[in-house]
Design goal:
- The protein folds into three domains: 125 residues, Four Helix Bundle (Hemerythrin (Met), subunit A) (Up-down Bundle), CATH 1.20.120; 50 residues; 95 residues, Arc Repressor Mutant, subunit A (Orthogonal Bundle).
- It is mainly α.
- A two-stranded parallel sheet has the order 1-2.
- It has 13 helices and two strands.
Length: 282
């Protein structure tokens, strides 16, 4: 989903109507696939309900993209992670929220905001934790980056370590170490693995690339295909998760699970070779 696809916010009445329309579409789809007919309805009538349900799904999602953008923007400022990545993660959480939404329990934006916020916080903690820091220190670094971002936005100078330690109530020595911390080699496949025609100028990076390709080849065909398609290895542009799921003919959650499984295996194998990596877990 793209941010420029956002639609106006829904009223409570519109939200409930669309939620009911979505539920009817899901039921109609089940009846069409199973052949059950507890109520007199033609295939054409059920098909219309299915289409209306899909339209309701799109409307509910697109009308809440601004919520995702707001929460992703807040998290980007706090963590220093790319806004586009966080926005895509927020869209995944929005989709999950809609799958579990019950219109009788309140407004969708209120429910979705909680799920999106928790998911984005978990993503930030995981990716900052992959910087080679314990999770507690990664969270402190996240807060520190947020403070620095606020200062930059206001046109002020960056916080010195001592001042940051006072503001955050932390040990100045720890803050100084965090400010000097260097991330380990990033295993972001779209950047780390060049196309076959591209020469890696850095010999160490070329060694890593070669090792990474060998480890991908050792994966099961199913997982290797996921990695190659997801990150555009050998075949061009990377695919987002929804495109990957469609290409493989599986659900979004299955595609995501396979991606995480493959990255976990690759990270473990590379670490066993003495290569410190920061694998992105989707």
């Amino acid at each position: 989903m793209q941010r420029d696809q956002a639609l106006p916010l829904l009223t409570e009445a519109e939200e409930r109507r669309l939620a009911r329309q979505l539920e009817a579409g899901v039921l109609a789809g089940h009846l069409l696939s199973s052949g059950e007919r507890p109520l007199p309805a033609t295939d054409a009538e059920l098909g219309e309900l299915v289409q209306a349900g899909r339209e309701a799904w799109d409307r509910l999602l697109l009308s809440n993209l601004r919520l995702v953008q707001k929460l992703a923007g807040q998290e980007a400022r706090q963590s220093g992670l790319p806004l586009d990545d966080l926005f895509q993660e927020g869209c995944l959480a929005l989709t999950g929220a809609l799958l579990r939404f019950d219109a009788d329990r309140g407004r969708f934006p209120m429910y979705a905001a909680g799920r999106i916020g928790r998911h984005l916080s978990a993503v930030s903690a995981a990716r900052l934790g992959a910087l080679g820091l314990p999770v507690a220190q990664a969270i402190t670094l996240r807060r520190l980056r947020g403070l620095q971002a606020e200062r930059a936005q206001d046109g002020r100078e960056r916080l010195a370590a001592a001042e940051a330690a006072t503001v955050m109530g932390r040990d100045p020595i720890q803050i100084e170490r965090l400010l000097r911390h260097q991330s380990p080699v990033s295993l972001h496949f779209a950047d780390a693995v060049p196309a076959p025609t591209t020469e890696a100028a850095d010999p160490d990076r070329r060694i890593l690339d070669d090792q990474l390709r060998r480890e991908i080849a050792r994966l099961s065909p199913e997982l290797a295909t996921v990695v190659r398609l997801r990150f555009g290895i050998d075949r061009g542009e990377p695919m987002d998760l929804s495109e990957l799921a469609t290409r493989l003919g599986v659900s979004l959650s299955t595609a995501r699970r396979r991606e995480r499984e493959a990255l976990t295996i690759l990270r473990r194998r590379l670490q066993s070779c003495g290569i410190t990596v920061a694998a992105l877990a989707g």
